[in-house]
Amino acid sequence: MRRQSAPEGKDRLLSSCDPTEPDSVVTTIVTSVAQLRDERTESLEPLDASIDSDALAELFTPALSGDNRGPGRVDFTYAGCSVTLTSDGQIVVTRA
To answer: What residue stretches are annotated with the Halobacterial output domain (predicted)?
Structure first.
């Protein structure tokens, strides 16, 4: 499940996703960056050019034991934007 909010201004966008669903994480990041840059997702470089998207998508999924992983956050740059993903599914995209 993905929820996306409107831009906070022309330079920042807040979104959220279900961090336990790998496809939701990757899709929300790419869609959010495209929205902030006012571009189509297809025109952006692949997310893997900036970060290992498989590892990113698995970062906050439950451990093999079924336990939730602890709180955390990841910061990286993608397609000219700073991206922050937190373990509760919040995504902040800011023009770099």
So the answer is: 23-94
